[in-house]
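I am going through a labmate's work and have reached the protein record below. What it holds is a sequence and that sequence's fold in token form. Please read both lines and tell me whether the tokens look consistent with the sequence. Do not assume that whoever made the record got everything right. Thanks in advance; the entry in question is below.
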Amino acid sequence: HGCILVLTCNDATKLNPTLMRSGRIDVKQEISLPNLKCVCNMLKTVYGEKSEKVVDDWQTFVISKKPTLER
């Protein structure tokens, strides 16, 4: 039939096992969270000419939210 079906979920361990049995899903690919470089590249792709300020603002925000070991 030439169709490709993509299934996504946040936690595959919580799926009904009948969905995951042989013959139903041929390829399983886990995609982890993006690192800083990947996020910056995505922002540059989406925001184009404005990307430098957006990336700088985003990095500043992330750094301000970064947990520290100090109490």
Observations:
- Residues 10 and 20 are 15 Å apart (CA to CA).
